[in-house]
């Protein structure tokens, strides 16, 4: 129950952040347009693609070692030293790469026209990487409130800057500055909770322990970062910043669903690591099964309602300009569901000291998605003299991710069965079938009723969600035990008491 409440808190926090992001996106999209949003997104993706240098799996190693009971002071000191060194290395490589591209090759980055935009984005990532040491430590200690509260406040400030910039016509540079100010706020608040934790001199033994865990997943970490940014990079490379803006805009909506994966990652890994250190393998299995079941109950109706009402969501929460990206939103919503359902299984492997398996799988999925993107995104590749390729742009990127994640999910479950003895339970497939049936019913409603206000959209979506739960209950897939679990997890009083208790420490 403690783990589920921590996951619920992180999920709620990420959803609050997503709502703030939606509101900000609404103003930016309508006031600045898709091209401005695309320029900013491309800058984030360009610099962000270098951040794999600063990760290399050491963040996961930090969470794992702390959750296993290692000395916190030595862990923090060692991880901080590693992160400072790798961040400096990343910054150096980016500067050299930029100099070589612009000075030696005498080329321009055509999708970025705003002065100082790249510099500001670089500054954001440097702050983010260094500040991230604190929430990563809190995750290892299973203190989700200390992760959630600063993120909510920082995101709220960033969103306010976005809205102000769009209303005042301040330009794209202020979107980047909003990111910088937001992460600094998160850093200040995180430090307040972090101040009493010990920081010891880096220890060789601790470093070797981190290295032992991190190096097998380093390649996976590289591909994980690239998978986060490569779709927008390819769209910008082979199309225009306008197409990047369309993709980025609807991707923000799909990520609303994917926030569950972040919450699972943040709290399930230390919980499984702790159980594995005590050889409680049966408990791990049941935890994974229950996690999959409950996130399916939450996310399946969210995804199907997003698919059914995709056009209305875009019109209400972004703008008419983004309607041509409707199909992209539908595909990315399904992608988000697959990623969320896959996450407990990947965490089970990593938490059970098999990060090498997830590393190999991540490399495979990343490589497959890149190959598919190169096939499905470009209409032309002038550098190779190729024309009329029939590329689909952002839609092609979405299909590439969908195919690779589906294949990856099947392989992941096979690995868990082969190495952990975990047979897949396919109850969630029944939930998906019921969700599909509800979606068909709501689709009939959608084609007969015009929905153009946010509260109407929420009303019909809530009706679809309640219908989903009702059918689950009628078929015995939602029991009193499940109801008690959800209520005890999200009970406002219990959640308030938990947050208050944790923040007092």
Chart the SSEs and their pairings.
Layout: H1 2-48, H2 52-55, H3 58-67, H4 72-104, H5 117-131, H6 133-140, H7 144-168, H8 173-194, H9 204-238, H10 241-277, H11 281-308, H12 310-317, H13 326-351, H14 355-376, H15 394-420, H16 427-448, H17 454-474, H18 480-490, H19 492-504
Helix pairs in contact: 1-5, 1-7, 1-9, 1-10, 3-4, 3-6, 3-9, 3-10, 4-5, 4-9, 5-8, 7-8, 9-10, 9-14, 10-11, 10-13, 11-13, 11-16, 11-17, 13-14, 13-15, 14-15, 16-17
Model description:
With 505 residues, the chain is mainly α. It has one domain (2-504). It contains 19 helices and no strands.
The domain tally reads 1
Low-confidence stretches: none
Strand content: under 5%
How would you characterize the largest beta sheet?
none
Distance between the termini: 20 Å
Structural class: mainly alpha
Gross morphology = globular
Radius of gyration: 22 Å
